[in-house]
Design brief:
transmembrane; transport; membrane; transmembrane helix; 24 helices; D-glucose transmembrane transporter activity
């Protein structure tokens, strides 16, 4: 049986269990948006700066110090902004620790350990009414952000290491699929007649820790990464057992030989390589640059601007119930991530990323035209809405899911944890920058704001075309050789030659 073709029940359980962390990440991303007005009201009441009775009595007052809505008070604005931003700050900080946690006790035990953070965060937010809601929610969001920064690195790392080569792309895309499903669930549960109301909103926030409980029950059933067992711990027999559990009965000698070569390669690298070492290494500089740009393209594409402000865009376009149109965006999000799962191992990573970035660039231009001209030509509002749906579709075909797992493909076992940590930090930092600056850029440029993203998308498309090789169906060894010789495909007969050159380069770099 071909060792690259097995899909077993154990593998399915392992991928599903790991992806519960991604689901939790997506839920936490989306859950804070829907109940904003309700949460702001409780912040105002807790701070003593607003009351419903005063707001009603003085509704027609012209006094600038009277706030008809709690969200208008500067103190509430400050605490609300902190509630949103602290999540990204937590992720930025913890993303540096992905490699350390992943190597400390292994990928499976690492995910199990960090679930303590998710449950703690869920409890803080779920019981926020028993003390000061603004302090409890901000604390919970900070802890949840710290958790999500870790899980957004650990999950793709684990799935990338256990997936058979033939299905590595499809299984790697599961991380993004779980994220968008989590966002969609949070949007639906956040409707005011479900949990996004005065009574139930703490439960809505608290549920963000629920997947961690299920994951903690299932993780002991999951095999540890064979690559971690063999390359990091040197336990060949345990690695073989893990391979048999994941792939069924087959001849594991080819996989073991590949891991053996990776282990020998890892020995030549510094035990704890620094960022300066990676940037100075001629072997890894290009891989690291490509990995970071993939994550930059994901965040600076403008996708978060769409997610954060789609409701207001739909309202400007004349949609009577924009919140449902936003949920529609979430549904499209999920559908086209499934399309990516189906296509990524057939069409290839490079093709899908190029198609996605190029399509998003065109949609950003169409969106700008629609927003600018819809007052003069009412039918242009349909152009705006169509551009939003297509923008999201193109994002989920390639630029959304692929950066998360392609970093694990671009690097061998030794540098992989550090590379994933650096890419994750880049992703979280970019997310934070967009979240903080987009409102100001929008005020400055108004309808032309998406032209900025169109220009960035064009730059990312050109970079991807020039530097990203196709990794579909290649071993980690073959991918490393492709980077050494350019973007062309290298015949397997030449791999040993290029590997020898790679080893010589590594030796000279370490010296």
């Amino acid at each position: 049986m071909d060792s690259g073709k097995q899909l077993t029940g154990t593998l399915a359980i392992a991928v599903f269990t790991a992806a519960l962390g991604s689901l939790q990440y997506g839920y936490s991303l989306g859950v804070i948006n829907a109940p904003q007005k309700v949460i702001e009201k409780h912040y105002g009441l807790s701070l003593g700066v607003w009351s419903e009775r005063t707001a009603v009595l003085l509704e027609n007052s012209t006094d600038e110090e009277v706030f008809r809505e709690a969200g208008q008070h500067p103190d509430v604005v400050m605490y609300w902004s902190l509630s949103v931003a602290i999540f990204s700050i937590g992720g930025m900080l913890s993303s540096f620790l992905v490699g350390f946690v992943g190597n400390l006790k292994g990928r499976v035990k690492g995910m199990l350990m960090v679930n303590v953070l998710a449950v703690t965060a869920g409890l803080l937010m779920g019981f926020c009414k028993i003390w000061k809601p603004h302090i409890m929610v901000i604390s919970g969001r900070a802890v949840m952000g710290f958790y999500c920064g870790l899980t957004s690195g650990l999950v793709p790392m684990y799935i990338g290491e256990i997936a058979p080569k033939a299905y590595r792309g499809a299984l790697g895309t599961i991380h993004q699929l779980a994220i968008v499903i989590g966002i969609l669930i949070s949007q639906v549960l956040g409707l005011d007649f479900v949990l996004g109301n005065d009574d139930m909103w703490p439960w809505l926030l608290g549920l963000s820790g629920a997947p961690a409980i299920l994951q903690s029950i299932l993780l002991p059933l999951c095999p540890e990464s064979p690559r971690y067992l063999y390359i990091v711990l040197g336990k060949e027999q345990e690695a073989r057992k893990s391979l048999y559990r994941l792939k069924g009965a087959y001849d594991a000698s080819a996989d073991v030989q590949e891991m053996k070569r990776e282990k020998e390669e890892a020995k030549r690298n510094p035990r704890f390589p620094s960022l300066h070492w990676y940037l100075g290494s001629s072997v890894y500089r290009l891989q690291l640059s490509v990995a970071l740009v993939m994550h930059l393209s994901q965040q600076f594409s403008g996708i978060n601007a769409i997610f954060y402000y789609s409701t207001s865009i739909f309202a400007r376009a004349g949609v009577s119930q924009p919140v449902y149109a936003t949920i529609g965006v979430g549904v499209i999000n999920t559908i086209f991530t499934l399309v990516s799962v189906a296509l990524v191992d057939k069409a290839g990573r490079r093709t899908l990323i190029l198609a996605g970035l190029g399509g998003m660039c065109c949609c950003a231009i169409a969106m700008t035209m629609g927003l600018k001209l819809q007052n003069e030509y009412p039918w242009m509002s349909y152009v705006s809405m169509s551009a939003i749906f297509l923008f999201v579709s193109f994002f989920e075909i390639g630029p959304g899911p692929i950066p998360w797992f392609i970093v694990a493909e671009l690097f061998s076992q030794g540098p992989r944890p550090t590379a994933i940590a650096l890419a994750g930090c880049c992703n979280w930092t970019s997310n934070f920058i967009i979240g903080m600056t987009f409102p100001y850029i929008q005020d400055l440029l108004d309808s032309f704001v998406f032209i900025v993203f169109a220009v960035l998308l064009l730059i990312f498309t050109m970079f991807t075309y020039r530097f990203l090789p196709e990794t579909k169906g290649k071993s980690f060894e073959e991918i490393a050789a492709v980077f050494q010789k350019g973007r062309k495909t290298i015949p397997k007969a030449e791999i040993s030659k290029h590997t020898a050159e790679l080893e010589q380069l590594k030796t000279s770099t370490d010296a």
